[in-house]
Amino acid sequence: FTSGGYVAPNPPSGAVLTYTLPAEIKATPEQRRKSQTPVKITISDASGKAVHTMYGPARAGVNRAVWNMRYDGPKRLTFLPPPPERDEEDFFFDPNTGPLALPGTYKAAITVNGKTETQTVTLENDPRFRFDPGAQAAQHKMALELRDQVSAMNEGLNRLANLHKQIASLQEIVGSNSDEQENVSYKPVMEAARSLDKKVTSLQSSLFNTEIQPGGQDNIHHLQRFHDNLQGIMREVMQPYGEAPKSQVIEEAAELGKQLKDHLKEINDLLAGDVAGFNKIAAEHGASTLFAGLPITVKMGGEASAGSGELEDEENLD
């Protein structure tokens, strides 16, 4: 807020990656649908494991992209609107921000039209402060574990939301049929669909409050549900820089991990049992079946290793 003065933007917060392109590359419709660009940037740790994927600008000439020095975040909830666009991910505004990377050497691979160039990025602690490497490693390990647990929970909620959408579409198609005789023949399907949808929405609402507006403040008027608690403990672990998780946080995370196993079992039982039962009735009456997918499990990303090395010069993609 100035009175006629010049204000410059803040410097990028992260590792700046610079590359050049001989001409602008237009995004395909599929890339636009996925909020991607033709420039794919993959960050890998010293062991070669990919830890973060992002997409950079594809303008002619010099381009810059900024890695926020974080790992990929948990899987997003697809039934919520996308977060507002920002120049960079912000921990305080984006609940899907991932854990900070440990100090060490990482490789940035920039791929355009099948051609890949790489450069090395070295992360170091602020030399003005002293940090305990053991505390940083403990925080990082637990943050990754919780990120993977939140991803599994979000995948389960996405499946339930998708099932609800499939059932609504089926009910609309069958219910709009004007042939009375056909409607009678589909009655068992409609009854089974209503029964299944009731189970789906009941399970979903027990885990996540769909009435809360994303990015709003109205969550103070609602009791937290399991998803809020699990996501909250993940962010509590990630927020302080270089601090090992406190004992009470570790205990709470362990209890939430046990609850997660029970909730995932509930979801998987519904997918394997109730959805399969509905599909049997639907197939017998010539109606569309529902897609449930494979069982949901926690896919642990594991610890990333950090190495050593010097920052290499930027390479051009020309």
Provide tags for this entry.
318 residues; alpha+beta; two-stranded antiparallel ribbon; disordered C terminus
In short:
This protein has helices spanning 29-33, 133-175, 180-185, 187-207, 226-238, 247-284, and strands spanning 15-21, 39-44, 50-56, 61-67, 104-112, 115-123. With 318 residues, it is of the alpha+beta class.
Notes on the structure:
With 318 residues, the protein is of the alpha+beta class. A hairpin with a 5-residue loop joins strand 2 and strand 3. The radius of gyration is 24 Å and the shape is globular. Helices cover 40% and strands 14% of the residues. The chain has helices at 29-33, 133-175, 180-185, 187-207, 226-238, 247-284, and strands at residues 15-21, 39-44, 50-56, 61-67, 104-112, 115-123. It contains six helices and six strands. The protein has a four-stranded antiparallel β-sheet, with no helix packed on it. A two-stranded antiparallel ribbon has the order 1-4. Helix 2 runs antiparallel to helix 5 (226-238) and helix 4 packs antiparallel against helix 6.
Name the average pLDDT: 86
Radius of gyration: 24 Å
- Counting helices, strands and paired strands, the structural category is alpha+beta
Uncertain segments: 302-318
Largest sheet: 4 strands, antiparallel
Estimate the strand proportion: 5-15%
Task: Please trace the helix and strand order, writing H or E for each element.
Answer: EHEEEEEHHHHH
End-to-end Cα distance: 41 Å
Overall shape: globular
The number of helical elements comes to 6
Number of strands: 6
The main sheet orders its strands as: 3-2-5-6
Helix content: 25-40%
